[in-house]
Amino acid sequence: MKTVLETRHVSKIFGGLVAVNKVDLVVPEGAIASIIGPNGAGKTTLFNCISGFYKPEIGQVLFNGESIHGMLTDKIAAKGIARTYQNIRLFKNMTAVENIMVGFEPHLEHGWVAAMLKTKGYQKEEKYIIKEASHLLHYVGLAGLGDHLALNLPYGAQRRLEIARALANQPKLLLLDEPTAGMNPQETDDMKNFIRHIRDDLGITIILIEHDMRVVMDISDQISVLDYGQKIAEGTPKEIQANPRVIEAYLGPGAAALSEKYRKEKTHDA
Fold it and tell me: Which pLDDT band holds residue 244 (cuts at 50, 70, 90)?
């Protein structure tokens, strides 16, 4: 199976703090891969290393077999990596359609000079991206809201709008950072199904950081677990649920032994 993303011994250091420590990650094409871990484990820092916000001090990041180490964020985006953020980063005083139009920027043929001069080429391209932005609004379930300011949209709609903007980049790899954060159970379930739909319908490989373990266990093909910047486990949802190191990372020393004792007692009682 083709590998879309690979990190090799990636490390990110802030002063004396090793936020990400020699992390190896291999994500196959078409997978939904989740990265989990306690708060401060280095999950978002790893995303920032992949997307170019941070340059790792050690290691390599490869996208479709090509090193993207040290590339600027716009160059990485143009190659086909898009992302969302734990804290929603929309242009709040722009409309929903305008926010999505920003996502097309890495692929536009006409720059800001053409936009200022309103050249024929730019006007033609602008009509095209407005049309495509409207299609994306419909795809993410926000049809009819294109003229609404982003700040006036409900929280769940803002989450979907941010994903629509990322999809405008026509990505091959989509990084989603806490996409269900702050959502109620119904919104969470809808988002979970939507993420699966993006993979199945558009063929986009997805890497997910998510705190809701029900979401992670339900949609992930593989799960990598970070703790204090290091990868401590990797496997299928079933393997991760039974991994003693993962249990202790979340619940503390001794938790794995207690969990195993409870499991044996439950099996004996049955």
Answer: confident
Q: What is the pLDDT of residue 250?
A: 74
Q: How many domains does the chain have?
A: 2
**82 and 103 in contact (C-beta within 8 Å)?**
yes
Query: Hey, what's the torsion of the CAs at 39, 73, 194, 63, to 10 degrees?
Result: -90
Q: Which domain-ending residue is among 147, 168, 189?
A: 168
**143: Cβ–Cβ under 8 A, 6 or more apart, which residues?**
137
pTM: 0.86
| CATH assignment of the domain containing 28 | 3.40.50.300
> What is the DSSP code (8-state) at residue 106?
G
Give pLDDT tens digits for 130-159: 888 999 999 999 999 999 999 999 999 999
Q: What token pair was written down for 116?
A: 């200022």
CB 227, CB 244: distance < 8 Å: no
Task: Confirm whether 85 is domain-assigned.
Answer: no
CB 164 within 8 A of CB 139: yes
Q: Kindly report the CA angle at 68 between 17 and 85, in degrees rounded to 5?
A: 60
Domain of 161, in residue numbers: 91-168
Q: In sequence order, what are the beta bridge partners of 231?
A: 226
The string of DSSP letters for 133-152 reads HHHHHHHTT-TT-TTSBGGG
Report d(CA 179, CA 147) in Å as an integer.
23
- Choosing from 133, 153, 168, the residue where a domain stops is 168
Whether residues 115 and 188 share a domain: the answer is: no
* Adjacent-strand bridge partners of 209: 35, 177
DSSP 95: B
